[in-house]
Amino acid sequence: MHSLEQALEKILATALPLRPETVALADAFGRIAVAETTSPVNLPPTDNSSVDGYAVLADDLKTAGSQSPVALVLAGSSPAGVPFGGTLASGTCVRVFTGSVLPHLADAIVMQEDVKVLPDDPAKIQFFEPIKLWENIRFLGEDVRKEARLVGIYEKITAPRLGLLAAAGIEEVLCFRRPEVGLIATGGELREAGAPMEPGTIYESNRISLSALARQAGAAPKVFPLISDDLTATKRALEQAFAVCDAVVTTGGVSVGEMDWVRTAFTEIGGELDLWQVAMRPGKPFAFGRRAGKLFFGLPGNPVSAMVTFFLLVRPALLRLQGAQEVEPPRQRAVLAKELANPGDSRHFMRVTMDSSGRARPAGKQASHVLSATARSHGLVDVPPATTLPAGAVVEVLRWD
Ligand code: AMP
Ligand code: MG
Description:
Layout: H1 4-14, E1 20-24, E2 37-38, E3 48-49, E4 53-56, E5 70-78, E6 92-96, E7 108-111, E8 115-117, E9 124-127, E10 137-138, E11 149-151, H2 159-167, E12 172-176, E13 180-185, E14 190-191, E15 202-203, H3 206-216, E16 220-223, H4 231-244, E17 247-251, H5 262-268, E18 272-276, E19 287-291, E20 294-299, H6 303-321, E21 331-336, E22 340-342, E23 348-354, E24 359-362, H7 371-376, E25 379-383, E26 387-389, E27 394-399
Parallel strand pairs: 5-6, 13-16, 13-17, 14-15, 17-20, 21-24
Antiparallel strand pairs: 1-12, 2-11, 3-10, 4-6, 4-7, 5-9, 8-9, 18-19, 19-20, 21-27, 22-26, 23-24, 23-25, 25-27
Helix pairs in contact: 1-6, 3-6, 4-5
């Protein structure tokens, strides 16, 4: 029997990043960059205006006052995307808009709210106060210098980073590949939705919840047909999944019953089992192994056990396959509003709900088949064996999201 930490260490030692691929920016969200991307351009690419207004020579407005306006001749206009072709001469101004290229020799922009245009003399603009040199001007390269780093190695392509890359005109980035993860559910009692619920049957629910957790972790889930508790069928399903996936996850059939064929099937198709059984609840009968460089996870069938073991042991591996350095679940501190009691002899990852003021309480019944409490829960609290965490205790919630 392994501790969760030992199991995770073993798994992460095996889960090496998949080969990189070049992806269009539109497909890069959430990926990890393999290489540094530098900027081929300056941002902004030119000096430009940060307001709608008038480009001037600051020197021309030195004597301007509220009672003694200075009038400048309007020499032209520079709408967005159309630079003013000429040079700004003393005594003149140029109409500009936010983002307009700074006209040649202009050294300040007066906001349009601060000027007056006389209806009978629209070619002359009235200015009522002096302006500081370079006021309302954004400078070439002040955001990003040409050749500066936009995204570093092993950095995640977040939404703001995508914006930065796009602004620099980057079209594609080299990222680690997303793993394809095969999901197989075993159990003679399992039925697809839509089938009549005959005595002894239940609707299968693990593949869909694990698909969602896989997607959340950036992996591409691939759902395989249901299989019954049969060695040949299990071997065939595993072989099919390993042929097309980077990792294969089964649920059910991995415990000690004589109908639990998953481990036998995996080793009979040439898989090497690295560990079986983790000292935790829910999820003790968890198996991990390798086959031809691909990862195998045998999860218990109980829906809560399957989700918890996926979250704590499979998710980190899927993230690592994508090159992520940070693979721990997101944590949030909370104060217990009600005690969490674990009378058992192994640590229990108990499902809790959290309110908006950061208080956590048990989400309901904690047995490993109770989906309703898990569905209400925001995350898990790791409660040591034979321990009651009292109300008021500060805990860390491992959040599903
Ligand atoms: P097993 O791990 O195969 O012994 O299954 C443990 C319990 O989980 C049994 O009550 C199964 O019916 C249930 N179970 C197994 N697989 C699934 C599944 N894919 N969806 C829903 N329940 C399942
Ligand atoms: Mg079963």
